[in-house]
Amino acid sequence: MSENVGIVLVSHSARLAEGLRELLGELASDGVRVVVAGGTEDGGLGTSYDLIAGAIARADAGAGVVVLPDLGSSVLTAVTVLEDEPRPGVQLVDAPFVEGAVAAAVTASTGAGLAEVVAAAEDARGFRKL
Question: For residue 74, what is the domain's CATH number?
Fold first, then answer.
């Protein structure tokens, strides 16, 4: 069986990213690697180039990786990492953090390819709650 697309959650807050990873663990299969890059190396709020680069490497099982940032500098830092250290099959996704991550994880757990997982995350922008 082939590996699933991996997911990297990039957030200013380690607790926020860990909480979302916990939620995804309940919704997606164990075969989906969800790795967090939250906060700074010293546990503070912010983003870290090294944490993001390391998370991408750990999430990559060969089927591709979607990188979902929360906002602001997490986007800019993720862009910089991907420009400095390009990896085939790694894609930064413009999607809502929670809904996009849920859609990506559930889709990845079906064995879908990278393009389909990216599309699911991006389509989450149109999800209505009411």
Answer: 3.40.50.510
Catalytic residue among 8, 12, 33, 102: 12
Whether residue 119 lies inside any domain: the answer is no
- Distance between CA atoms of residues 128 and 120, nearest Å: 14
Assigned domain for 115 exists: no
CA angle 105, 106, 109 (to 5 degrees): 85
Q: Is position 90 annotated as part of the catalytic site?
A: no
Per-residue pLDDT of the chain (130 residues; tens, 9 = 90+): 468 999 999 999 999 999 999 999 999 878 899 999 999 999 999 999 999 999 999 999 999 999 999 999 999 999 999 999 999 999 999 999 999 999 999 999 999 999 999 999 999 999 888 9
Beta strands in 6-121 (DSSP E): 6-11, 34-38, 65-69, 90-92
Count of domains observed in the chain: 1
3-class secondary structure, 106: helix
